[in-house]
Design brief:
Length: 489
Amino acid sequence: MLSSRATCESRVLFPVISRRMRMNAGKRLDLVTVCALTAMLGAHGVAQPLLACQAPQAATAQNSANEPTSKPASNQDAIRLAREAFAMLNEGRHKEFIERCSVQMGAALTEAQSMQLRAMLAMRLGAFQNEISAEATTKGTYESVMLQQKYFKGIAKLEIVIDSNQKVAGLWIRDLQSTTAAELPPYAKPDSYADEDVLVITGKFELPGTLTLPKGTDKAPAVVLVHGSGPHDRDETIVDNKPFRDLAVGLASRGIAVLRYEKRTHKYAAEIKATEIGLDEETSDDALSAVSLLRGRAEVDPRRIFVLGHSLGGMAAPFIAQRDPAIAGIVLLAGTPRPLLDVVEEQIDYIAKLDDVVSEEEGKQLDELRATKAKIRAGDSDISKDSLLGAPAAYWKKIDALRPGEVAAKLMCRILVIQAGRDYQVDGKSFDGWKAALGDRKNVKYRVFEKLSHLMIAGEGKPSPMDYQKKGFVDIEVLDEIAGWIQKG
């Protein structure tokens, strides 16, 4: 868990657990991998699946006797070594790849994890074709090499870190881009709406976005979509699923304008300091800028602008509405009013028990998580150095102190709370928490969709991170519920 240069979510390192877990589907995955898969869409404060043991900028303060501080490899040597390491992964030479790693990374990494990374890239992007570019940057005693690799269905941007021993000290997936046309959900009616490129601007941050406007509608109601955890793109892409795209085209097909945009931590990840970010900088400030953008559009009814928050965005929505009382209503889509450290602990505990066995090593990792959580809450942690699941203690201390239920209870706007019955990340305790906070007020509506996952996509069987690797669309009943609720207001 070493990533001081990271944002709280876009540069996350997971503790590696060698114990492997048997999943319902008959596949075996280790806990670090299933945590990473969960993280991609909102195990709060976490990001894309990766293999990494040391962050380049943190390295100078963390070198051990086995990691000397001599001059790093030259840029050209680093590029050559990074290319060789990638070739080992791409060709399935996983043992060779581990042998090429630093002492720290090699000790933590298993061949299974290396195989899973290769399999994930193939599943997302198809067969590897060729390298597009390679650039190296010196960072202290490390060389950071950025490789852009072309695959049959898209492009992967990988960062491979080379240390002064010419070993691989870290590997991150920085971006995955599909170059194939995404399949639209069956309820989309492309002839009924039009997409327009826009910029959501908050100070120096300019976030590319898409405004989806229904055709033939004057002064349409409008919705701003607010992301869950992770450095999300405007579609909140999770493997082959695009829940925000689904919501945008589905609602626009029903006469509702929708604004979605790149999350700040996706567009400006390298410029954000992990220890300085909170909910406002991560989410709320840009959502308010998006609301302001909609108010300036002639096609939008300024009295009927809503905010829909998913996962962490659902937690943020009450605070967004508190700061802008003119917002007509908020949709809490798989959001939680509970202290976030409790939710995260339960997520990881659930994943660890999916095979009905918690090994000694897994138990140790869970104990460490709980101990760190207790230190953060007691104020005993070093907020600039300590971390939990790769996110710094400073971030967790801010987020864990938030009480969205108390804020929501004071709002005068309309509120729609939607819970998915197969959601193990934000489960029924969160739904009960909203009901306890909001009661039976006339401006609040509750809905549960029993067969849906955290992404509002239908599934079967015991919920697990593997659900997110199955392609699907936001369920039409969710679209109908949200559209009907907005249009009644």
